[in-house]
Amino acid sequence: MQATVTTKQAIxxxxxxxxxxxxxxxxxxxxxxxxxxxxxxxxxxxxxxxNQFTIDFVSSTxxxxxxxxxxxxxxxxxxxxxxxxxxxxxxxxxxxxxxYSAPVIxxxxxxxFDSFIxxxxxxxxxxxCKKMAAGTATFSPLFIYGPAGCGKTMLAECIxxxxxxxxxxxxxxxxxxxxxxxLHDKTIFAFKDYCRNCDTFILDDVQVFxxxxxxxxxxxxLILDLRNAGKNIVLTANAAPSNxxxxxxxxxxxxxxxxxxxxxxxxxxxxxxxxxxxGVNEKIADxxxxxxxxxxxxxxxxxxxxxxxxxxxxxxxxxxxxxxxLADTLKKSKSPIAMVKAMCEKLGVSYDAVCGNGRARSLVxxxxxxxxVLKNVTGMSLxxxxxxxxxxxxxxxxxxxxxxEKLQQSDLVMSAQIAQLIEEYK
Length: 426
Known about the structure:
Layout: H1 2-23, H2 26-33, E1 37-41, E2 44-49, H3 52-72, E3 76-81, H4 123-134, E4 142-145, H5 152-162, E5 167-171, H6 172-185, H7 188-196, E6 200-204, H8 213-228, E7 232-237, H9 249-255, E8 259-262, H10 268-277, H11 282-291, H12 296-313, H13 319-325, H14 327-332, H15 336-347, H16 351-355, H17 361-378, H18 382-387, H19 394-408, H20 412-425
Parallel strand pairs: 2-3, 4-7, 4-8, 5-6, 6-7
Antiparallel strand pairs: 1-2
């Protein structure tokens, strides 16, 4: 008789779980419902979870679904936290006790704000990062975006190094991997607790969530829980929230709900300072800053190469050594002035006219096309770009670039011409 009752109960539990799975999104069911422990006692469906947080979330989100399904089977629903004391069950692969091993993160390379060489355009985002690290920020999340090599990860590392309390930092790829592993190992609740048990949560490269629906769902809930608990959240990406492709619009909206700040690529003054710290004199550093205009990763590689030479060879570098040591890099690099003069020839305008005050339509278009090319090829700030086309200010360059980018959508000839120039000077 007992065996018959047990079989009937097991079948009823399976039927209830199957019915729930048809009414709840597959990713959400896998993340939140499947790991729960179901039991039928009389006319009551008992649902147990490993912690109160899970009970609160499931109750507030899926209470109507649970009640509707239980009513169809003539039962009530009771949710509770599972007994902490170990319970021996005669089931294979028992996994009721969840543990999560956090990924090992190397803190040896963590920098500080003094090591971040900033320019005027990055003063705002640097101040925001310092305020976040001090724990006095009134905004959360802090969303930092910019092109590759502009210093987003370094700023995130600086915040981690300077923050007080428990700080968790992951890359976007790590979060995706750990979330998938927790689902596979049935330790998802332990993973959720780990991410929430912190004072500051930092995630680098949010853009890797593109197309990953289940990860986005989990991350949305994580941000909401952290923010409601008054925790600090720092996120980085290669584009502004509204420009992240393949990301759920709800997550885009949430990412933009705090403070969004952009980081620009290293300016000439920043590049010069980096090369001086690498061990070259000011004259050589100034020349290199004008010739090496790649992203921060390449600039860092050049600086490391100079430091390595000085350390291994025991001598300082001069112009001759620099030309040989950085032959490949300098061969590919062209000065902005050389680019502008070359583009003047290709576009049929004189260099003096471009740098002058002429307002002829053809001249203005050529000047603005050069701004777009310099922006895409050099990574210079808008103010720096303006200095190479006649001393135009930041606002003028911004207007010119925006105008050309809009014209490119309808003028295929211009679009092809700009694409060719960008490819040539890369």
